[in-house]
Amino acid sequence: MNLDGKTTVVTGAANGIGAALARRFHTAGARVVVADRDKANLEKIAAELNAIRPDSAFAVAADIGSEEGNVALIDAARAKFGFIDLFYANAGVAIGTDLESTDEATWNAAMNINLHAHRWAAKHLMGEWLAAGEGYFCSTASAAGLLSQIGSGPYSVTKHGAVAFAEYLSITYGDRGIRVTTLCPQGVNTNMLNPPDAGGDLASSGGGAVKASGAVLEPEEVADIVYQTILDERFLVMPHPEVHTYEKRKVDDRDRWLTGMRRLQARVTAG
């Protein structure tokens, strides 16, 4: 998809990958609706983009952890710019640790933001997209959605679900004009991996495993790769090539791969 003149929506756009995606889409000529709970940073992003090209960006303070929040975001984007050509479900949370220590509220929050938000957005976009015979749904999952996340059950489970949902959309609607892309990065230099207060569950447990498994990329590098994938209309964005190697090992000999993951977990927790 050529994004010039198109309307895009990016959630989790106040910082990190989301902000980098918003800037990259805007550079490509798109109108950008940026959504996040962090209203202050969000409005700075929108002001920055509008200073470059007036009335090309719109900030929506949104809580996409509920169906109502997703509906409100979509309604606001349509009211501002009309037809939504591309919706990018990027917002995510890295919360929860092991099974016995993670409460139900944490599981529910992870499920709602990392997985159900994708479903709710697609649900309320699909009718208009199918009527038009076109639409593009993008999501940020994780290498954890192809492999698994050491240290966080909710993160691993929900990111697997995000990949599965994207695959379902592509299979079910791909021959009806709906394009789907999902991003599965490993380490990216964001607040999720390196929180300012060092208090994130992923940073305190699985973050060490992520950093030990490959390079840590900058959000702008990832956004460039995502943009090229959207231009090419391909499904999977895998900015860390080593993830493909790990995935092949997993498929070829799952028991051996699980043994290796347990060894990595032991090294990380011991270090």
TrEMBL record:
Stored InterPro entries: NAD(P)-bd_dom_sf, SDR_fam
Keywords, sorted A to Z: Oxidoreductase
Keyword Oxidoreductase in annotation: yes
Coiled-coil residue spans: none
Any Pfam family hit: adh_short
Annotated family: Belongs to the short-chain dehydrogenases/reductases (SDR) family.
Protein name: Unannotated protein
Keyword Signal in record: no
Stored CDD domains: SDR_c
GO molecular function, one term: oxidoreductase activity
PANTHER family: 5-KETO-D-GLUCONATE 5-REDUCTASE (PTHR43669), ALCOHOL DEHYDROGENASE, PUTATIVE (AFU_ORTHOLOGUE AFUA_3G03445)-RELATED (PTHR43669:SF3)
Organism, as annotated: freshwater metagenome
